[in-house]
Amino acid sequence: PFLKLIEIEENHNFASVSSPLFVSNESNICFTFHFYLFGSTLNDAAVELLVKQEENENVVWKTKKSFSDKWQKVRLTLNTNNRTTQLKFNVFKSDVAFADFSAIRGKCVYEELCDFESDTCSWTQPKESKAFKWKRGTNSGKDSLPTFDHTTRTKDGHFMYTEVDGVSTPESAALKSKVFDESFGVHCLQFWYYKSDNSRDEIDVWLEDADNTTNRKQLWLSSIQDTHTSNQWQLAQATIGATKSFQISIESSKRKTGAYTSSIAIDDVRVKPGECHSISSCDFNDDTCGFTIDASNTTLLHGIGRVQNIHTMPKNYKPPTDIKKNGLYVYSDFSNITEKTVNVLISEVLPPVKEACISFYYFIHGEEKATDAELRVLLQSTIAGAAALPIFSNEVAINDWRELVQDIVGQEHLFKIYFEMIGTKRGTIIAIDGIKYSSTKCSNTASNLPKLIEKASCNFEDGFCNYIIRHSSGSRNWVTSVPHDSKLQFPSFDITTHSGKGKYAMFAVDDSYAVDANFHSEDLTGRGWRCITFWYSVNAFFKITPLFRAATQRNSEVVQTLFVHENRITDGWQQVKQSFYVEDTEAINFYGRCSGCVIAVDEIKVYEGMCPDVEMDYLNCDFENGQCGFVPQDNDQLMWRRLLATEITALTFVDANNVQRNVMALDFGTGKSFTGRTSLFSPRLNVTDTVCISFDNLINANGAIIKVYKLDINNDEKEMIATQNLNEKWERFFYETNVVYQNWKLAFEAQYEDINLGVIAVDNILVHSGKCKGVWSCDFEQKCLWKSLPLSKTISTQKGN
């Protein structure tokens, strides 16, 4: 039996149901109930629970509409304080049901999930009084806190958070679980975390010996997650298990000294049996896992296929059973729509991958072979303004479950997977089930470089090939010859010939005001995957930030953005490799906009098919758009991190142009003393023979050094290339070395002893075959790095030198 609200009386905003008055002889009760609220169309609260004592009423829980066609359980610890109490539900939408009300004296015993809606469950923190600690609360209008919690996705939902407002020294705050005994077995710890955009503080998860808390193992660290600064709720998980009694400690750490405002929050902490499984994978039988449904998608549901208007569906419509015959799935109910409707199921934020695999089952139900609904799967970069990359589309009703297995390649930035369901006419549904995501390829087939599309490829040695130049404003345009009267700085060599005589496309603007221009390929026909590779260089001198963009276009309109660079300078040539999917005739467009700048492009190659995963024979990273595959050594004490220069505690920049640069750094300004060593590893390299390695370096920590090694991956051997000591300003260093290893990595090993202030930083790392260009010698056939000296200075020599 259950209690159901049929309708709300006319002229009333809500209906209420209340418990009898009661008095508990304890300060708390554990109140449990089940509710059913399927397919409500309200965006505000649909149900709220109040605790009434005398004349006071306090809302202790509320929820919006439910997408799930299932009963849901709520457990709340309520403060009664030995007073006469009444519980009351206000319901703002009909078709709500309640069942299994239960009230027990005392606090709720912690089960596997804590959503922090009523208390902190069995999670506790040390009792010492300090400003920096975990707090339970809601968004109180602060920009640094999440706009809504993860559980209810409302501004009134609760979560745990730390703030650094008013805290000027490095601090940490621990939130600890109850003690689990050794018979607990293998479990998966899951929680959702949020870091504000400007936060460089961290979350650490530790497994501690219950009898000796100094004996502990690190399970998870936010700073080594590629998604950890995405300013939204993110899923974290770690498999746990121990042979002794243990506790879990979730710690928030303020790493920087000084006053600033930022926050860290966690919600929905769960400890469930079994090992953790891949993120962005879900069978939907219990819930939607880490997938989210936008609140505006009122027809995107989680259930067994029940529809709002059965009369518009095909005759004898029966909801499809899920692929396992006994569970739930996600579906769009387009049975009663009156206009085009778009629903989106969105994955968690995923880290960059060279190769990955997505598989799922889908069902498009409608009139036979009708095209009234379409399912699209897209990859959406988190970069602002980036267009979504479609990888699958089907708009024909199939009335049966179909499986799709699809490779994902070349995602160089954080991204999400969008399952977009589009209904254009009522009388259809689209269902999705059994999503599996893996960071490995779907098949073991080797990736070979696909066929070159010659009419979209160009090395500019004989002009612009088949590309068409279009200028947008001003008199400047893309050219292949350096303007004779320009005082700008151009790349001293091209990519094709590696000489000063080679050609490349360039957009040079001497003016102090912004000018833009573009060039594009001929239209490329056909549907499917393509791969584009090219080299580019940017050098700008005025305050206006240059913009360089590669995109596909149709009828002069941008369809999808393939690459964007918005920084004043690159350190030499940079290479781009990107896979993209086209559904129709599209052209490749290169666009530049800047003032006092040179934007250069060379060696454009476009292929049919996806980009292969190849080892690198050239590396050039300025860390502005990510870590370029560089990986910090896992170190409990101190780790290399990608930081904005302005965020490094002890770093002062003399050059104003360098303030906003991103660097890889070890920041010692945390108030602790550090002794040890830790390394930063490059991606795998396969360039051999004579190799040039150059990088910018800064060390302003006394007693610290950097040793640069080449590591033989196959034989686990290393050979030192150079040692860098104290240098308090940014300097660039060049080293030539002979490499005999077939597969190797570059390692920057920092060594430090008793250091509590300062920084070690590297930036603009360049590795290429051959000698370092223009550094050791110059035949003046092309521009070198030599500079002329004023005549007032002389160069003296000594005999024998």
Quick tags:
50 strands, disordered C terminus, Jelly Rolls, 801 residues, 5 domains, globular
Molecular structure report:
The chain is mainly β and 801 residues long. The chain folds into five domains: 106 residues, Jelly Rolls (Sandwich), CATH 2.60.120; 160 residues, Jelly Rolls; 158 residues, Jelly Rolls (Sandwich); 155 residues, Jelly Rolls (Sandwich); 151 residues, Jelly Rolls (Sandwich), CATH 2.60.120.200. It contains no helices and 50 strands.
Please provide the count of β strands.
50
The shape, in one word, is: globular
As for the CATH topology of the largest domain, it is Jelly Rolls
Structural class: mainly beta
Work out the count of structural domains: 5
Q: So, CATH architecture of the largest domain?
A: Sandwich
**Major sheet characteristics:** 6 strands, antiparallel
CATH class of the largest domain: Mainly Beta
Distance between the termini: 100 Å
Q: Which residues form runs of ≥5 with pLDDT under 50?
A: 445-449, 652-657, 782-801
Task: Work out the helicity level.
Answer: under 10%
**Whole-number mean pLDDT:** 81
Q: What percent of residues are in strands?
A: over 45%
| H/I helix tally | 0
Gyration radius over CA: 30 Å
Furnish the topology, listing elements before pairings:
Layout: E1 3-5, E2 15-18, E3 22-23, E4 28-36, E5 47-53, E6 56-63, E7 72-79, E8 84-91, E9 96-105, E10 113-114, E11 135-137, E12 159-163, E13 171-176, E14 187-195, E15 202-209, E16 212-221, E17 234-240, E18 246-254, E19 263-273, E20 292-293, E21 300-303, E22 329-334, E23 341-346, E24 353-365, E25 373-381, E26 389-394, E27 402-411, E28 415-423, E29 428-438, E30 468-471, E31 478-479, E32 505-509, E33 515-520, E34 528-540, E35 547-554, E36 557-565, E37 574-582, E38 587-594, E39 597-608, E40 619-621, E41 631-632, E42 641-644, E43 662-667, E44 674-681, E45 689-699, E46 705-712, E47 717-724, E48 727-739, E49 744-755, E50 759-769
Antiparallel strand pairs: 1-9, 2-8, 3-8, 4-7, 4-9, 5-6, 5-8, 10-19, 11-12, 12-19, 13-18, 14-17, 14-19, 15-16, 15-18, 20-23, 21-22, 22-29, 23-28, 24-27, 24-29, 25-26, 25-28, 30-33, 31-32, 32-39, 33-38, 34-37, 34-39, 35-36, 35-38, 40-50, 41-44, 42-43, 43-50, 44-49, 45-48, 45-50, 46-47, 46-49
